[in-house]
């Protein structure tokens, strides 16, 4: 090649590097979108997807984890409000937060797990509550 021409081709990840990627390596990046996770692992997106399939991960759990983080944050805010008003309600909120944190840890260990039915119901209820509040603000 001549000195003035720059090679734009990206290098492939070494196959030893790809083979060495374990579930624990992937778990560090589950809180990121899959494209950023692949960039941080220094592999292409298709390589990462293939590795996920090999490890039994049908889809990247970023959105599940992001959803659980949002629910945990909502519960922490709710706990602060409830603590001032009612001790029993605050304990219920704290218990639910611990349950969500436990579920998040389980998904980080086993990303192929489905969310618990109770968690799905809770997530739906929170979404509906926020949606109704937004609708009232916009139309009321």
From the structure above, extract its key features.
140 residues, mainly alpha, 2 domains, 71% helix, elongated
Tell me what you see in this structure.
It contains seven helices and no strands. Helix 5 runs antiparallel to helix 6 (87-109). It is mostly helical and 140 residues long.
Query: SSE order, as H and E?
Result: HHHHHHH
- Number of separate domains: 2
Shape: elongated
Helix residue percentage: over 70%
N-end to C-end Cα span? 68 Å
User: Care to count the β-strands?
Assistant: 0
Summing up helix and strand content along with how strands pair, one would put the structural category as mainly alpha
Biggest sheet: strands, sense, closure? Answer: none
What's the Cα radius of gyration?
A: 21 Å
* Share in β-strands: under 5%
Average residue-wise pLDDT: 86
Low-pLDDT runs of 5+ residues are none
> Helical region count?
7
Domain RWP-RK: 3-88
InterPro entries: RKD-like (IPR044607), RWP-RK_dom (IPR003035)
GO molecular function, one term: DNA binding
Keywords: Coiled coil, DNA-binding, Nucleus, Transcription, Transcription regulation
């Amino acid at each position: 090649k001549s000195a003035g021409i720059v090679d734009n081709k990206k290098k492939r990840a070494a196959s030893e590097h790809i083979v060495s990627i374990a579930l624990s390596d992937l778990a560090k990046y589950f809180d990121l979108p899959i494209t950023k996770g692949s960039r941080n692992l220094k592999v292409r997106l298709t390589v990462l997807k293939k590795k996920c399939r090999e490890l039994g991960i049908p889809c990247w759990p970023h959105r599940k984890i992001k959803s659980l983080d949002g629910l945990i944050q909502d519960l922490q805010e709710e706990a602060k409000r409830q603590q001032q008003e009612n001790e029993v309600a605050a304990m219920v909120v704290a218990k639910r937060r611990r349950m969500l944190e436990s579920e998040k840890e389980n998904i980080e260990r086993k990303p192929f797990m489905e969310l618990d039915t109770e968690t799905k119901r809770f997530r739906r209820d929170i979404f509906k509550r926020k949606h109704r509040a937004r609708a009232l603000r916009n139309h009321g």
